[in-house]
């Protein structure tokens, strides 16, 4: 891994996307016949593939294995900087010169599906023998009107990680602590009571992308979202959502009581998780890459993991990562699907933790896999708890420096103005969603 989660989430504004993409039925590219005889089986030739620059190392490994496994189809892989990906793909579609397959940030899948520029893969996906083992969160981001326009490829999940050694010293049982805000607050106070530079919690509170990634699941654990309604007619669900209030109040309480490391106030995620890996932090909501990949063996051995809880129970995690989609107009869609199926096979999926990611197939968690990656299986054992909001405005709502999510969080937590934060957040969510859905 060469980029932090902060870098992965630095995607530009998408207000001009509608103007770049063709409208449905207006110069629309032809859709490949995915039900043609031999589709994905008798493929030959070259497949042009775009991937996110952030995930190119992991994708290249699979491409190399694909080439070693057969000699009929070759993949011409082009990495695209994450901040340019959406605009570059939209421009290619407009210019009618599209790649055969794209490895796209799953949260951006609906931007293109909504404009009807990806191929309907429903019959192919439904025929996969492991269909029920695929991540429902990723599939949800690739599904519209019960039709599926992409398949999950890799997962980047937010989870709650904890230092078992610190918790033991503080007399905290993690199994009981991680199931509610009351349990977490009690545990946090005990950890902070150890004194000195030991803090209970770490969060990069000046990174909009990270805040969206690690804090929202507390809300989703109550089976609600910050957004309500179907794509095209969505609005904010802030002031009428008790889970949002409780979540912000939880963080406000921890900040008031000096339970969060003070560096969190200005932390943009440049060295995300370094304080936890250094053994100074009891809990950190983060991902596998930041917590595990850069940690030494000693720290890995004393790292535990749980899902992120709601105020009074429940559990959830962010289903980030990538989907594989085939644009309309793909010249070698059959070869593209042959590669997609290969990438989804268990041997390839089980390589993902080496790059900091998690498989998207529950059945990848074999006994051998569990032995090798013991703290990497929590999402695979709870795929039904993974979620990500299906919306056209995610980047504007969460990833921009002036997004309403980071404004609301910081105003409620650091400025101690919870009511004002919620009211302002509701207005900004509604405004952005209206504009994005025009």
In short:
The chain is an alpha/beta fold and 438 residues long. It is built from 21 helices and 15 strands.
Q: How is this structure best described in words?
A:
It is a single chain. This protein is α/β, with parallel strands linked by helices and 438 residues long. It has 21 helices and 15 strands. The chain folds into 2 domains: 5-156 and 321-381, D-Maltodextrin-Binding Protein, domain 2 (3-Layer(aba) Sandwich), CATH 3.40.190; 159-318 and 391-436, Periplasmic binding protein-like II (D-Maltodextrin-Binding Protein, domain 2). Strands 1, 2, 3, 6, 13, 14 and 15 form a 7-stranded mixed beta sheet that branches. Strand 9 and strand 10 (235-236) form a beta hairpin. The chain starts with a helix and ends with a helix.
Tell me the β content. 15-25%
User: What oligomeric state do these chains adopt?
Assistant: single chain
CATH homologous group name of the largest domain: Periplasmic binding protein-like II
Helix content: 25-40%
Principal-axes shape call: globular
The CATH topology label of the largest domain is D-Maltodextrin-Binding Protein, domain 2
Provide the domain count.
2
Radius of gyration: 22 Å
Q: Can you count the beta strands?
A: 15
CATH architectural arrangement of the largest domain? 3-Layer(aba) Sandwich
Look at the helices and sheets and give the structural class. Answer: alpha/beta
Task: Indicate the CATH class of the largest domain.
Answer: Alpha Beta
- Alpha-carbon distance between the two ends: 37 Å
